[in-house]
From TrEMBL:
Gene3D superfamilies, A to Z: alpha/beta hydrolase
Molecular function GO labels: carboxylic ester hydrolase activity; palmitoyl-(protein) hydrolase activity
SUPFAM superfamilies from the UniProt entry: alpha/beta-Hydrolases (SSF53474)
A single GO cellular-component term on record: cytoplasm
The protein's name in its UniProt record: Phospholipase/carboxylesterase/thioesterase domain-containing protein
Record GO biological process: fatty acid metabolic process
Organism of this sequence: Crotalaria pallida
Length: 261
């Protein structure tokens, strides 16, 4: 995320993708382009269309996160459509009302498991995510091949969007996020189909922006709902995304992609 210079000190989210981009440079050489290319083309024909929506964190932008897609080199992703939308500009309470890219309002930082939640603005953001998913499914993508991923504020929005979508999706991946709602009125909207969407939750153990305790509160919350969640803790990782997390995300999604055969 981006720091905004103000006269008052501000605590905001910080996203660090520089370490992940080192992996982009490590492309293996193709020793036999014509033969291997033909094999890849044949394989891609058996892989259904898939869709990955990436939701950035507070103060960030969609285009700044697009290099993430270059890390997914497996042939299973040849028919994958990626989307990196940018959040609208809005005043953010934890930033003294300063206007910045934000999916919904955040009242305090650091975020804990008990931080106040702005469910009204959250639900408006969820509606926009659902419209994107609906459009992709209408274009022919199997819901089981739709994956929503997000970092920090985008991770919280990912969780809400997946749980409140009426169909079973391929999965939701949350990085350094938190549970952004707790009202029974919202929880009652979660359908049995949505509860079958698997969740991957990754969190750095030395995160000082979204505290590790906020991440740890996620799996018990999901367990009570009957939602499957894989939680991975990363020692030494602060409020950022690592190569290791993204490599695991690639294999996690790849294992869940539905073939067209």
């Amino acid at each position: 995320m981006k720091l905004i210079p103000l006269l008052k000190p501000i605590v905001v989210f910080v996203i660090t993708l520089s370490t992940t981009l080192l992996f982009v440079l490590l492309f293996p050489q193709n020793k036999n382009p014509s033969f291997e290319g033909a094999v890849s083309d044949l394989h891609s024909m058996s892989v259904s269309r898939s869709f990955i929506l990436w939701l950035h964190g507070l103060g960030d932008s969609g285009p700044a996160n697009e290099p993430i897609r270059t890390l997914f080199n497996s042939s299973e992703f040849r028919n994958t459509k990626w989307s990196f939308p940018s959040a609208p500009n809005a005043p953010v309470t934890c930033n003294y009302g300063h206007v910045m890219p934000s999916w919904f309002d955040i009242h305090e930082i650091p975020l804990t498991a008990d931080s106040p939640k702005d469910e009204s603005s959250l639900l408006k953001a969820v509606q926009n995510v659902h419209a994107t998913i609906d459009k992709e499914i209408a274009a022919g993508t199997n819901p089981n091949n739709v994956f929503i991923c997000g970092f920090s504020q985008g991770g919280a929005l990912t969780l809400a969007s997946v749980l409140l979508y009426p169909k079973t999706l391929g999965g939701g991946a949350i990085f350094s996020g938190w549970v952004p709602f707790n009202s029974s009125a919202i929880i009652e909207q979660i359908t049995p189909e949505a509860k079958r969407t698997p969740i991957l939750w990754s969190h750095g153990m030395v995160d000082r922006t979204v505290l590790f305790e906020a991440g740890q509160a996620g799996p018990p919350f999901l367990e009570k709902l009957g939602v499957s969640c894989e939680f991975k803790a990363y020692p030494g990782l602060a409020h950022s995304i690592s190569n290791e997390e993204l490599r695991h995300l690639e294999s996690w999604i790849k294992a869940r992609l539905q073939s067209s055969s």
